[in-house]
Structure formats: structure tokens, C-alpha cells
Amino acid sequence: MTFNIYLKTQVIFGYEKITLLLVITLILWSCSNDNNNCHGIDCLPPATQTGEGTFGCLVNGEPYVDNSGSFNCYYQFVDGEYYFNISPKKDIINIDQIRISSNMMEFVLNTSIELNENSPNEFYAEIGLLDTPGDFTTTNEIDGTIIITKFDAESNIVSALFEFNILIPSTGETIHITEGRFDSLFTE
Description:
Elements: H1 2-32, E1 54-59, E2 62-66, E3 72-78, E4 81-87, E5 89-92, E6 95-103, E7 112-116, E8 122-129, E9 135-137, E10 144-152, E11 157-168, E12 173-185
């Protein structure tokens, strides 16, 4: 009888050890597949059109991603004109903010729209750097585009693809934003 209880105890403790080993293995496996191990475009969120609350692009080839959905995104009709803004904030790669906006311009779906300077009837982009005061914006002389791939006024969803370059005058450096995409809910 004592031997039988001993065997049952060993079997129970054996299952607990196996279960514990499996849990530890799963935790370690999930940590090793964390986004910190991705590189380049593999780190970006997919280009969805469902209001996922994602924003991602490559900044000089390095990923800049905000999947929080808590960034500022609006499309507003003010004084007879439309204004758009999306501005995730993430302190990555010396950039603390990327902003894409329109000034008195309505959305046009599935059309490549140039990102120019901040002036009426234009879309433009800006970045804020951690170590350099001020915002830096796209210009008419440097290439940049945005394509609004989805605009749903009833569900307040806007999705787009974008890319642009920004020159930092004080250093002469050009920052290349490529493979950009966002999929967000917006306020009116």
C-alpha cells in the first residue's frame, strides 16, 4: 500500500514538473518571438483597412511603429474646409513624432497625392526630433506621397500608404520615411 501511494505521488509530481516545464518553455518561446527581434519591414504592422489603430514606417530603414491606437487622428470640416491630421508619438530613432496633415483639402481615394509644404490645399508631413528643436516639414522640392486607401465616414476609419523625405537644414541630413502605412479611427 505504501509503495502504491509513493508511485501515485511520483506520477502526480511528474505531471506537475512536465506542466511547469511546458509553461516555462512557452514563456521563453514567446519572448524570443518578440518584435524586438524583427528587422526592417518585418516589424511594421500590416496595411489593414479596419480601424486597427496602427501606424508604422521605416525611418532610414529602421522601424517606427505605434500600435497603441491612442495617437491623435482627426478629419474635420471647419469654416467650409477639410483638415486632417494623424500624429503618433513614439521616441524611436531620434524621432519623437511623425505627423501627416492636410490643410483645407478633402480626401481623394486611391490617388497618389503629393506631400508638399504646409499651405492651403496641400497635404504635408512633419517630424519632430528628440535632440533638435522645432518641427521639420516636407517641401515642394522633395518627393513625398500619400495614398488614402480607405475612408469610411460612417465608421470613422481612415487608412493610407505613404512615403516622404525631409531635409534637416542644420545638418544637411535627409531623413527617408518609406513603407509607411496607417489604419486608424478618426474624430470629426
